[in-house]
Amino acid sequence: MTELKYEVQGSWQSAPGGVTLPRGFQASGVHCGIKKSRPDFALIVSEKQAQAAGVFTSNLVKAAPVLVTMEHLESGFARAIVANSGNANACTGEKGLKDAEMMAEGVASLLAICPQEVAVASTGVIGKALPMDKVSEGIRLAVSNLSPKGSGDAAQAILTTDRSTKEVGLTGSIGGRNVSIGGIAKGSGMIHPNMATMLAFITTDVAIAPIMLRKALVQSVNESFNMITVDGDTSTNDMAIVMANGLAANALIDEEGPDFDEFCRGLREVASSLAKMIVKDGEGATKFVEVRVQGASSVEDARCIARTVASSNLVKTAIFGADPNWGRILAAAGRAGVNFHPDLTDVYIGDVLVACSGKSGGFDEDCARKALAEKNIEITLNLNIGNEAASAWTCDLTYDYVKINASYTS
Amino acid sequence: MTELKYEVQGSWQSAPGGVTLPRGFQASGVHCGIKKSRPDFALIVSEKQAQAAGVFTSNLVKAAPVLVTMEHLESGFARAIVANSGNANACTGEKGLKDAEMMAEGVASLLAICPQEVAVASTGVIGKALPMDKVSEGIRLAVSNLSPKGSGDAAQAILTTDRSTKEVGLTGSIGGRNVSIGGIAKGSGMIHPNMATMLAFITTDVAIAPIMLRKALVQSVNESFNMITVDGDTSTNDMAIVMANGLAANALIDEEGPDFDEFCRGLREVASSLAKMIVKDGEGATKFVEVRVQGASSVEDARCIARTVASSNLVKTAIFGADPNWGRILAAAGRAGVNFHPDLTDVYIGDVLVACSGKSGGFDEDCARKALAEKNIEITLNLNIGNEAASAWTCDLTYDYVKINASYTS
Description:
The structure is a homodimer.
Chain A: E1 13-14, E2 25-30, E3 41-56, H1 64-72, E4 77-87, H2 93-111, E5 118-125, H3 132-144, H4 151-157, E6 166-174, E7 177-186, E8 199-204, H5 210-222, E9 228-229, E10 239-244, H6 258-280, E11 288-296, H7 299-311, H8 313-320, H9 326-334, E12 346-349, E13 352-356, E14 359-360, H10 365-373, E15 376-382, E16 388-395, H11 399-406
Helix pairs in contact in A: 1-2, 2-3, 5-6, 7-9
């Protein structure tokens, strides 16, 4: 089987530091009392105005911070990202919008920047008003705690039911200059294609024009955050934001070409690393699953089938139970709304060919069970009708998923 | 709030007898060894050739019996329905098709009818060959056990992980003649709109032309089986079949009018009763949930939102935990792909207005929790933008759903 995973190509190498790895970024994460005891307020600031782009939830029900940030980023510039966890400020009406604006204004005032330069994000319970006294305290604390080593604290402060922080950093070379890209994210539940409940904040010191930055972000989101699913629900609050402050002083990337491609490779690697971390830390997850679709007529078809299989409750419970029920895999593919020939389709669990040309390959059940007992599982469908491929990532559906979600607000 | 439930209207009244309630139908359910010890083989026979219509899974991966029955019913006529449980005869290639044909031929030969007059259905594990020696024995036993009181046995023999049989009977009056409609079904897992894993066999002694029978079936399926969801997965084997043998001797229904409407009311009641039984008996279900959408611009919009909310894992786990997390309800509606105004939308849990104009109604949480602790739960969304309405039915997502599905083949 061909390898679908993107290897870190080009000049990119892993490095510590997260969103404060790139030059000129500081961050902080503090506790202001929105959550009982854990950090709940994060701030990321660029010392210089940065190009900025965002991708937002496709849900018709958009939380107030999403609406405010969409508007603020229309300019293509930003200086800061402020985020709270513990309260989503979603379904909160006019007051919610005012509160989100006040978060931006509070940060802007202390940093002596313009409120429109501040992106606002919230995650947590839907439908409750933000406690603005605590938010004010959060802003004060976050600004005074800003640090060039603050990425880890910020990564901590945006979590909800996540079990671990999600932080990535890469250094590389563009146009002969050392550059870097860093990111933090939160995920956990309500994770589904076309923006999960997911906040992802990415920073870079690369010099790039707003239109190219946006293009690179959309491409990388389509291959990363839009290819993961935990439970099929799309949240009201999702956003992925990238800020590029240009302090690496590379020649401005303002068109397609080798520099743009190199930046895209790095950005894609950061985004897909964060996306996979989100799935691995999915609510109740015990296993990480890559669903690869090969031999498709188009990338869109491959993506659609990969996502549908990755979304299937029946596939995900079977994986939890290490049950090589390949019929469920093929049946899920069959309801993706994509035209293919089940009779030509091969299905692999790990390296075991469990279905050949749409029927049982008379495979070794013990081998398949062993592959499903691993922590990392690969499911491959080869449609054998074309040359296009895509991957989606998911986790298993477990008792703990039910437990976590049966009593979230209480 | 207006009442969306369909009351049994017109002349229809509940009656025992299931598929053998209408004149001229016999049925049987036997054990032939496909399953270890429970009944696994069912037969329904009309003493006279009947008009017949079917609706089949929308999954691209269609099981062999689905393909065979689609072809057999093209004529618009049938005499018998034969079904086995324990093996889906899906993803079984050419041999599967031959086996499904042999099931029809075996029945036809013993009943001295034409194989094309036999509809074939299977449900159970995907991807394993039907044990044809056992099937042959099943055919022999089923034919010799045919009885005018055999509906209960047939209802038993089509079950898989179902906990209880699903059987309905109605008597009514059309054109001055006493008529009846009966049905049996199996459901349980892989239940989702546009045909669940679901077999539904409906019989009637009404005289009706094939084209009108088909029309009535499609309408009633759209309002019943296509509005239920257990886990979002569409099966390879679903079918709903109706046979009408005309023995009630009413004036043939061959056009729209009062007689057709009366028949549709009865058929819809049979189909929606069976559909609701399937949901109540959903895998691991502890609660039955009706999601009503009112005030929509179109019935299609209302259906789409109702189904999306009913499909949400997050809504279903919150209901399991009696957690009045209305934000999840509104968020699920928001990803239905339908245009509406979240800011105008009211959400009720039972009679409790939990969200008014898209934000918290400052409701009594204890009352909402109490409503969610019931066995039967009603969730209502009023979009306040039109006059159309629809309902979908689902169940909660529980530990037992995970348990049942983590090890189905083993």
